[in-house]
Amino acid sequence: MKISWFSFIFVLVVLSSASWSALADNHEEFIQCLSHSNQTSSNIYTPNNSSFPSILQFSIQNLRFNTTETPKPLVIVTPVSESEVQRVILCAKKTGMHVRVRGAGHDYEGLSYVSEVPFVIVDLINLRAINVDVNDKSAWVEAGSTIGELYYRIAEKSKTLGFPAGVCPTVGVGGHFSGGGYGVMLRKYGLAADNIVDARLIDANGRILDRASMGEDLFWAIRGGGGNTFGLVLAWKIKLVDVPEIVTVFTLDKTLEQNATKLVHRWQYVAPRFHEDLFIRILVSKLNSSNQGDGNNQQTIVASFNSIFLGGIDRLLPIMQENFPELGLRREDCIEMSWIESIMYFAGFPTDGPLDVLLSRVQLSTRYFKAKSDYVYQPIPEGGLEGIWRFFFEDEAKSSQVILSPYGGRMDEILPSAIPFPHRAGNLYKIQHLVYWDEEGEEVAERHISWIRRLYSYMAPFVSKLPRAAYINYRDLDIGVNNIKGYTSYVQAKVWGIKYFKNNFDRLVHVKTKVDPSNFFRNEQSIPSLTQWKNKGE
Description:
The protein has helices at about 5-35, 50-60, 80-95, 145-155, 175-180, 185-190, 210-215, 215-220, 260-270, 315-325, 340-345, 380-390, 410-415, 440-460, 490-500, 505-515, 530-535, and strands spanning about 45, 75, 100, 120-125, 130-135, 140, 160, 195-200, 210, 230-240, 240, 245-255, 280-290, 300-310, 335, 370-375, 400-405, 430-435.
């Protein structure tokens, strides 16, 4: 009997729809499974609960994924203990429910709380214990904590210990550490993930493992291989780092009229070679010159040279004079402060204000945005930089930004294979491309996303190639995705995987195949399992 191609496709669609419909029905079994355990019912939310929308939206940090069209979870669970998380994973596996794990909701593509298939959110907001051991220079940090909470707890105990994580205090440590996690001390101490010494994790079989019991392969993979892939990390043990009692910060703004192009061009040659105590990044954005008080409304570009030096002004000024005199840094441009005050400075808070603002999980502002990332091996010529600036004069670039973060120092010393994060020696700096907007609607979103895609296309000749590298914590689904409603081949996954992980991708695949062969923990850019491919006859 012959079956037409149309009929075959129709049958596939019907079968697929039926299977996803059945999965959606499984959430009742999932809730029933939880109720048979000691799971606290007050920590289980369905759309029938009046508090469901507020629980869901509280940790949504990108308005692109807070629309009426955005797929919503069937259930949100906010466990308060490791045993409750364990029960959630066991019940999800038993009932076939797809799980997304959310820490603080900063995934750039919303993957911690959005899925195209029926799903459950495990929200770790209640797992936020932080225990700092000053004598051991270490801390255990539960995965629902934010890096702001971590910084606050360290500062409570010591003025001369810190940690090399990011500048945004509302970012959750779970996702941040899982993707590598970088901040303004990366040239001195590397990434957050470079300073992780142990972890507690629930695997796909519901077992709670530490470094000793999970083995070195899995411990390697979770430090930079991306979240929601190898298991659910409950807590991290981190190695704290020494910071001086006094650090120095400065921010110098230079417009095009103040030689910004030549300064940015020169920065590329000197910033990666500075002393490791010195970090100067550049934030590029559009500026109306009327903001400077000259009465005109001429548009220009401003490059903000934003810096921290792990030491005092007297030591900084000679280094700047020797290595980057063109910037014209003066003593009066610099501010000496404690390390924790510098955390406030980079987060945009008053440095003399109360430190407890670092405990807030609410961002200063939540907007629509799209981001991309690049790595630069060779300095971009002045003409290339001027081409970037032209994009900033387009209407969609009103709230856009390009951030250049220098590498070198400790980053050059750590092997690309030490952890899954491979971007080490040879990288002059990383670029984060960002575009924000405030208006609702698909057409507005498409215009802004189109703008950043065009900028990204323009950048191709100036950045890394074969592969064009990217940073997984600046998640970008444009560079490739898995089939969330079916198996993903090695070849398909490698399209995006090699960009994030380069030569480490293959090892990540083998670890995944070993620890989660059924691909229980998955998302649009999680490492897939070889076992599934073999089962499909590949």
